[in-house]
Amino acid sequence: MAALRLTRRFHGFNRTRLHSNAVLCSSYDPRRDLSSSSDGIDGRDSRLPVLIVGAGPVGLVLSILLTKLGVKCAVLEKSCGFSRHPQAHFINNRSMEVFRKLNGLADEILRHQPPVDLWRKFVYCTSLTGQVLGSVDHMQPKDFDKIVSPVSVAHFSQYKLTRLLIEQLKHIGFHVRSDVLLNSDDVKLAEQQICLGHECTSINTTENGVTVTASITREGKHVEKNFHCDFLIGTDGASSTVRKLVGIGMNGEHDLQKLISIHFTSQDLGQYLMNERPGMLFFIFNTEAIGVLVAHDLMQGEFVLQVPFYPPQQRFEDFSSMMCEKIIFSLVGRELADVNVLDVKPWVMHAEVAQSFLASNNRVILAGDAAHRFPPAGGFGMNTGIQDAHNLAWKLASVLRGIAPPSILSTYETERRQIALFNTELSVQNFKAAMEVPAALGLDPSIATSVHRTINQKLGSILPSDLQRAIFNGIFSIGRMQLSGFILNENNPLGSSRLSKLREIFEEGKSLQLQFPAEDLGFRYYKGALVSDGDSFSSTQEKPTGRRRDYVPSSDPGSRLPHMNIQLLSHSKEETCSTLDLVSANDVEFLLIISAIEESYQLAQAAFKMAQEFQLPLKVCIMWQDKATYAVLSSSERLLSPWKNFVDVVDAKTCPGLPSWWDLCQMTNRGAILVRPDEHVAWRTKSGIEGDPVSELKKVFSAILRLDS
């Protein structure tokens, strides 16, 4: 809660506005029509600045971020309700940092998630009550020491996250509705609405905006209506209607694996696992069945079982509740008295990235699964989407508020598509690592895929389906015999060799991984809304390894600002906060971090002048060496006058032996760091500016905002 109080305190700084009578030197006119859209959509002549299609976590987070930045928006969702299927469940460190600044959402998640000791491990076994083949603990003490981040990762089901996001949206004025189109008297669909049961059926764009046609069916009545907006954002999932309607294709690996997802509850199973072998994922291999059990909440007894699916020999309709219970009992190793199958869904695993994230002159934009589809190995799907929204929100707000031209939106694709491609490769590597375990046990998944393909291609056209099914079941049953106790034991030379190979995979970290700190906090944009300093620029991104690597703080342009605990010196109460808290969550405000030396104050003065000229909110942070120096030499108010939007801070030194701020950033205190509203470094100078700082910073702001495009 202390972090939340400090965030609110910083919002006081962020309300300071910079006014100017100066004429912009850029050719861009910030008072364009985009910043003066009507207050709602009414299907005729008024339009909403942003219309979001898809009310999953990415669309909801984007709605919150835009609203906090003063951008009016609404959401259309084709489903008539919010899914109760748990789906994604691992929230990585960077997403938790975003949530931390959404009115304390991260605190809510940490408060309601299961205890860490109940989900830190992946367990490999012959059944949930049988032989344990191995386990991997994915948590390390440093994951919770808050040295590299002010918050830790979380295990929290997607539908629970959605519920918290809806609560936040209602708190800031949103309404959830399903009757908008049916009420003929309701002419205007205002902003701050989430409209359920509204399916996007067509998209038409002009130079002036986007027209979206949505349909709704209730009690046999079918209605269509046109909505108008400046920008349409597609966050409508892996099978995105928006993506298809604007004709954007996908590149990558299609149909990696087909699975059946079985959502069920059992307090009996939850209590047993909680007491005997707690974990997040259970990889189960036996002669009767193979599957992966996701323990969403052991305390509540909530699970999702993923089992391989091989159509047409297997049919989705065969997975009745009774059949699902039988599979569950086979993998548990005994019957459960209280099993309750809630939902059964087929799904296909892909590894694809959209060919473009932008369409129709940058007025239609894709984010989340609509823009990229990953294997669920490492939890990159939802987390990458959350960070898409974080990147996009301030850029949309910049355009709609007249700070930057629409061309800045091209940097969204430049930056986020690069990350999507990287995360696709990493998640595929992680998925292949997961396949190493069954391969070591004598069940090579590639062989199973080849057998299934052969049955379809060679026998599918000449044998009846019942006979195909019998052949398929017979072959796969023989394959699963590799998992019998007769073979898989230390006394059998073959079994002993396989178990030894399995231990080697676990010990060397070659199995499925959960955490990737270097990629989670250390992802970096190489091109986009940033300016290279020359020293650190590289057009080539380091290749993913598929192994856990530690995050190394960096102030290179494009990197996320390093976290350090600091104290505010210009406030009566000395409270500790993060350097990330210096960046506003409520304004399109840039942050300049300097040290308390004369040249840096001159640089700050120049930055304030340029920010005023560009009508861009700016805050300056002065990093002091220690409190004693500040007490004697405090001069920021005098040296920065007449500008008031600044804060003096000092390293909180919460842990002995940690580097100083400038050492952490691998810079001298003569340098300066300019941070974007999404907490990524936009520009830096390691040792001050030679020449006129005003002229230099004019070039910097023009390049970042794409005013030179």
CATH class of the largest domain: Alpha Beta
- Going by CATH, the architecture of the largest domain would be 3-Layer(bba) Sandwich
- Helix/sheet category: alpha/beta
Spell out the CATH superfamily of the largest domain: FAD/NAD(P)-binding domain
The general outline is globular
User: Total number of helical segments?
Assistant: 19
Report how far apart the termini are.
Answer: 43 Å
Q: What would the CATH topology of the largest domain be?
A: FAD/NAD(P)-binding domain
Poorly predicted parts: 1-33, 35-45
Instruction: Tell me the fraction of residues in β-strands, as a range.
Output: 15-25%
Question: Which structural traits does this protein have?
Answer:
FAD/NAD(P)-binding domain; eight-stranded mixed beta sheet; 19 helices; 3 domains; 32% helix; 709 residues; alpha/beta; nine-stranded mixed beta sheet; disordered N terminus; Glutaredoxin; 28 strands; Alpha-Beta Plaits
Describe this structure in words.
The structure is a single chain. The chain is α/β, with parallel strands linked by helices. It folds into three domains: 40-116 and 153-251 and 355-430, FAD/NAD(P)-binding domain, CATH 3.50.50.60; 252-349 and 431-507, Alpha-Beta Plaits (2-Layer Sandwich), CATH 3.30.70; 522-704, 3-Layer(aba) Sandwich (Glutaredoxin), CATH 3.40.30.120. Helices cover 32% and strands 23% of the residues. The strands form five sheets. Strands 2, 3, 8, 10, 11, 12, 13, 19 and 20 form a nine-stranded mixed β-sheet that branches. It has an eight-stranded mixed β-sheet with strand order 6-5-15-16-17-14-18-21. Strand 11 and strand 12 (209-218) form a beta hairpin. Helix 9 (380-400) runs antiparallel to helix 10. The radius of gyration is 27 Å and the shape is globular. Mean pLDDT is 88; it is low at 1-33 and 35-45.
